[in-house]
């Protein structure tokens, strides 16, 4: 059975310039690479305001959807809030919701966007507008499609927004493996945080990953949301860790096999990646699809 892969052309917001610190073109590039490899995509719609408000303040959601967010809040996010950014952010959330539903049916699925883990209940930050995993997790729980959720966040930055969204929800276990000296400065606690020192490489990272995944799967979740950010890579401008391509591949393969072995459906999302070469970032994001689409 083919791996369900969700993609929307609006994931690449054209109002963000090629030389922006956030490599927006990576979304079109990763889709192009996978299309060339023979993959097909499932098209999501756009998340509704009611869905977005499951994880975010109503006034904030309205300000994004109507492009009326104040300049200070927009600077905290890092994007001018244009119609293209509003569409991109809403489609990304819808994509994670759709991928999660396919994961529950087929065991695994990937959204070729998402992982916007710095967006919290009161607003966005760090290039994250809406927290797609936060919304999707809340929605599945509220409609009783699942009873327990685990978040395995391997983006190089701690998942502060996700931690805040699920802070008081005993149905959700949040786990973050990140660089401790990296942004954000204030790190509201996840249920499990493993912060690695700068320049940690493949061996230390993969050892810590085993502990993180074991803890998350030990909570007997009905679904795992896996943030497969490629910013721990040694060439990443914002990462501060030193993983190789092989290290990233081993990470994604370990998570895929562990979830498959435990019989837990997993929804993969892309997360961050900030190397200067957007095509190189896109190629690293394909490792997630390779790992989830390859049987043991």
UniProtKB/TrEMBL annotation:
Signal sequence interval, chain numbering: none
Record-linked CDD domains: HDAC_classIV
Tree of life domain: Bacteria
Pfam families linked to this entry: Hist_deacetyl (PF00850)
Histone deacetylase domain segment(s): 30-285
Gene Ontology BP annotations: epigenetic regulation of gene expression
One MF annotation (Gene Ontology) recorded for this entry: histone deacetylase activity
Keywords: Hydrolase
Residue ranges the record marks as coiled coil: none
Family: Belongs to the histone deacetylase family.
PANTHER family, A to Z: HISTONE DEACETYLASE 12 (PTHR10625:SF19), HISTONE DEACETYLASE HDAC1-RELATED (PTHR10625)
Protein name, UniProt field: Histone deacetylase domain-containing protein
Origin species: Hyphomonas beringensis
